[in-house]
Automatic annotation (TrEMBL):
This is DUF4868 domain-containing protein. InterPro entries: KwaB-like. It comes from the Bacteria. It holds the Pfam family KwaB. It comes from Amycolatopsis heterodermiae.
Length: 300
C-alpha cells in the first residue's frame, strides 16, 4: 500500500459531502492553516497506526476484531462510486457556503492530500462535523476556518478509512460499510447483483426477482451475496454439486432445488444463501447442523 510513500506536506483540501437520494454532493471548505495542519496531524497518526499495527484483508462476511487495527481492501469495495467521486474531486469542488453547512446533514468530512488529481489520498471520517461543533473541538466557518470559542464546524482526532490510489485501509469497518455499502446509490444496484448471481447459478427467474427485492432491505443478505459473488468456488457450483451439498447438509432438495434450479423465496432464502456462502457446518461430535452469521478465518 502507498502509506509509506505519501507526502503529507503536499497540498490538502478539506471536503464535506452530503447525500440527496442516490446523489452525493461535495463541497470544499476554505480552511485556515492551523485547521489544515491539525487535520494533517490526525492523518499522520492514522498512517502511523497502519504502518506499525496489524491488519488483515477485508471480508464482508467477517467482522473487524479488537486485534485488527485496520483492514485492507481494493478500491472495488467502495460501492458508492458517486460518494467516492465527490471526495476525490477535492479542490475542484465548489466552495461550501455557511448556509449549506448549517442546513445540510453532512455524511462525512475528509482531508484530501496530493498534487496530482489522479493520485490523491483521502482521510475520511463518517459523521456530521456540524453536530460535533457543540463540543468545541476545532474550528468555525467564516471566510476561513479558524479557532474560536463557538465553532460551526468541528473535527475530532480520528479517521475511519484512508483511500489511496491503489486501495483502502479501513480503520472502522462499521462506519466504512455505512458510508460505502448502505447508501441509496448502492441499494440501486441490488437487482444487478441478483441478476449476476442468476447468470452464474441455476436460479429460477422468480428467485432472482425475490432476491433483488430482499437485497434492498437486508444488509446481512447483501453481505452474503457479495461474499458469494467474489468466491473462488462459484464456477464449480453445478446443479449436481449443489444437489449433493444440499443433501449432505440434511436439507430438502425437493424444496430447494425441485427441477434443477434453486428456489429462493420466503421459505428457502435462509437455507439457500447459507449453503451458497459456506455458512453451514456440522458438529464433529454431535453431528448437529449449525449456521454462521459472520465468520472469521482461522489464523495460522
Amino acid at each position: 500500500m502507498a502509506s509509506s510513500e505519501l507526502d503529507m506536506t503536499a497540498p490538502a483540501t478539506v471536503v464535506v459531502v452530503w447525500r440527496s437520494g442516490q446523489r452525493a454532493i461535495g463541497r470544499a471548505v476554505k480552511a485556515g492553516g492551523d485547521v489544515t495542519e491539525a487535520l494533517r496531524g490526525y492523518a499522520g497518526s492514522a498512517l502511523e497506526k497502519v504502518r506499525t499495527a496489524t491488519g488483515r484483508p477485508y471480508d464482508p462476511n467477517d467482522e473487524q476484531g479488537d486485534e485488527d487495527a485496520y483492514l485492507v481492501a481494493d478500491r472495488d469495495e467502495l460501492l458508492d462510486t458517486a460518494l467516492l467521486e465527490q471526495i476525490l474531486t477535492a479542490a475542484s469542488l465548489p466552495q461550501a457556503t455557511e448556509r449549506e453547512l448549517k442546513e445540510q446533514r453532512l455524511a462525512l468530512y475528509a482531508l484530501v492530500v496530493g498534487k496530482d488529481p489522479g493520485r490523491l489520498t483521502a482521510f475520511v471520517r463518517r459523521g456530521n462535523p456540524v453536530s460535533l461543533a457543540s463540543k468545541g473541538v476545532l474550528a468555525t466557518f467564516d471566510r476561513t476556518l479558524t479557532r474560536v470559542t463557538n465553532p460551526l464546524l468541528a473535527f475530532d482526532k480520528y479517521y475511519d478509512l484512508i483511500i489511496y490510489p491503489q486501495g483502502v485501509h479501513i480503520l472502522d469497518q462499521v462506519k466504512f460499510e455505512a458510508l460505502f455499502k448502505e447508501s441509496e446509490a448502492v441499494l440501486a444496484k441490488t437487482t444487478e447483483w441478483a441478476e449476476s448471481l442468476g447468470e452464474k447459478l441455476p436460479i429460477t427467474p422468480e428467485g432472482i426477482e425475490w432476491l433483488a427485492e430482499r437485497l434492498r432491505k437486508t444488509g446481512i443478505l447483501r453481505r452474503k451475496v457479495q461474499g458469494i459473488l467474489r468466491s473462488d468456488y462459484l464456477a464449480q457450483l453445478t446443479p449436481n454439486v449443489l444437489r449433493d451439498k444440499i443433501t449432505a447438509h440434511g436439507l430438502d432438495a425437493k424444496q430447494l432445488m425441485p427441477d434443477g434450479q434453486l428456489v429462493i423465496n420466503k421459505e428457502t432464502e435462509h437455507d439457500v444463501l447459507l449453503l451458497l456462502n459456506e455458512d453451514l457446518w456440522t458438529g464433529d461430535f454431535s453431528g448437529k447442523q449449525y449456521a454462521a452469521g459472520r465468520k472469521s478465518p482461522r489464523q495460522p
